[in-house]
Amino acid sequence: MDVTRRKFLQVGAATAATVAVLNDKAFALKSLQPVVGVDNPLESYPDRDWERVYLDQYRYDSTFTFVCSPNDTHACRVKAFVRNGVIARVEQNYDVYRY
């Protein structure tokens, strides 16, 4: 029997669909319930030290605004955030209405 690509894909799809429908564990995740119902997980979470790490990641000492002009083609006003004397990140300046 000559098996073509189309016939192989049809048989494979039919087999996969049959296994998914007949398998009683295929839809097991729909019947799972949480062990403990918690309204606000941040109130009952025992270890919240991760918040300090997350907030310190974006901490900065000072900022300044400058103009970035690559090859004198255009001028973009950007804001640099300095931490420990080093520029930590550069973002778009969101006060375009002021200049």
Automatic annotation (TrEMBL):
PROSITE patterns, alphabetized: TAT
SUPFAM superfamilies, sorted: Formate dehydrogenase/DMSO reductase, domains 1-3
InterPro entries, per database record: TAT_signal, TAT_signal_bac_arc
Lineage top rank: taxon: Bacteria
Protein name: Twin-arginine translocation signal domain-containing protein
Organism: Tectimicrobiota bacterium
